[in-house]
Amino acid sequence: MATVAFIGLGNMGGGMAANLIKAGHTLKVFDLNEAAMAALQEQGAAPAGSVAEAVTDVDAVVTMLPAGQHVKSVYLGDDGILKNIPADTILMDCSTIDVASAREVIAAAAEAGFAMVDAPVSGGVAAAAAGTLTFMVGGTDDAFEAAKTYLDAMGANIIHAGDAGAGQAAKICNNMMLGIQMISVSEAFVLAEKLGLEAQKLFDISSRASGQCWSLTSYCPVPGPVPTSPANNDYNPGFAAAMMLKDLRLANDAAEGCGASTPLGHLAEQLYTAFSDEGNAGKDFSGIINMLREEKL
Ligand code: NAD
């Protein structure tokens, strides 16, 4: 078993780090939040006083940070990962960040002689705790093979998406589909309500017809048809609207950067911006049905 540095022990990283410990690895952890570090210390991890201290004498580094600027500073800063790791350390960034930043950091790692992958996840906090995440991995074949040993301890599906940045590309493309589909399912249920069609009937029909998709069958935005969906729990997340908005912005920025046309992606971003601005950033993203029900858009 190996020694792994884990940086970023938040909602996702905390559970992921715990699963590396359960798999038998020795963990050195760092987070700006001391309570997050204390929680991992209780589970057997060694807390470090800085990024540099955490990554000294390790075999692998995993980062799970909020956004591109955090990832760049933690990897590229003077006190950061690339200046302080031993030779042959494999690097895995599991944060959801913009494709350009992912490629920049992986290129800097390669220049310094290190193998690195971008490995964003799908699955949320429950899957992070259960070790059942889906990892979308970008990087060379060798980097993917080296990372897979560690990712296997945290996920159920580890998929090599392509070269550096391909994991982030897959993540934002997937989540743009998800955001658009949630709005489309929500609009259909609001229309059904106004036409006098029962929600359960629409569910029974569309889940067996051509409208079926994950936002309908696994995450239905009205209470009832899917008892585990956040609609049955006052739209507590789940997957917060703020997170969906972040991913839609990443998708639309990437689309602008490469000349792809995403008219529905832009509209979804506008609708999630309005929903978040109404005080719902912390609500589940399926709660957008309530805004669609109330408003003449
Ligand atoms: P979070 O805010 O709970 O955790 C981020 C952690 O990083 C915090 O504990 C913070 O203190 C720490 N941090 C920030 N800057 C740091 C630094 N310089 N050094 C050390 N620690 C630092 O966020 P999260 O929900 O765990 O999400 C992490 C990433 O995973 C994000 O990119 C998010 O988009 C992605 N993601 C989240 C979910 C979800 O459902 N929460 C699902 C899929 C992907």
From TrEMBL:
EC number: 1.1.1.31
Pathway: Amino-acid degradation; L-valine degradation
Record-linked PROSITE patterns: 3_HYDROXYISOBUT_DH
Annotated catalytic residues: K171
Domain of life: Bacteria
Domain 3-hydroxyisobutyrate dehydrogenase-like NAD-binding: 165-292
Pfam families: NAD_binding_11, NAD_binding_2
Catalytic activity line of the entry: 3-hydroxy-2-methylpropanoate + NAD(+) = 2-methyl-3-oxopropanoate + NADH + H(+)
Any one of the GO BP annotations: L-valine catabolic process
GO molecular function, one term: NADP binding
Entry keywords, A to Z: Branched-chain amino acid catabolism, NAD, Oxidoreductase
Span of domain 6-phosphogluconate dehydrogenase NADP-binding: 3-162
Main EC class the enzyme belongs to: oxidoreductase
Protein family: Belongs to the HIBADH-related family.
PANTHER family, A to Z: 3-HYDROXYISOBUTYRATE DEHYDROGENASE, MITOCHONDRIAL, 3-HYDROXYISOBUTYRATE DEHYDROGENASE-RELATED
NCBIfam families (UniProt xref): HIBADH
Protein name in UniProt: 3-hydroxyisobutyrate dehydrogenase
